[in-house]
């Protein structure tokens, strides 16, 4: 159910993306309280992006979930995902935005239907 979309201007060539996907999956599942089997992570690199007028490493993310999000969880998720991006892709925490969407099951399609 939770889906984390991450876009960055950092090239993913030569990067162990499997480690990023695995760590992000575990983090999202743990903090939201959902099984890892339902967590999707999308990671896009080399996306033309600028932040603050520069093209230094930056990233943007959106996390959609059916429940499990609240101000405390969102703060923890923001810190945890920012840390992953900083350690794995050298994106400074100050150059990363993460937007949260808590949605109803009827607004989330899966397996040819909705939840």
From TrEMBL:
What GO molecular functions are on record for this protein? phenylpyruvate tautomerase activity
Annotated Gene Ontology cellular components are: extracellular space
- Superkingdom of the organism of origin: Eukaryota
Gene3D superfamilies the record matches: Macrophage Migration Inhibitory Factor
Family to which this protein belongs? Belongs to the MIF family.
This protein's name:
Macrophage migration inhibitory factor homolog isoform X2
Organism of origin: Phoenix dactylifera
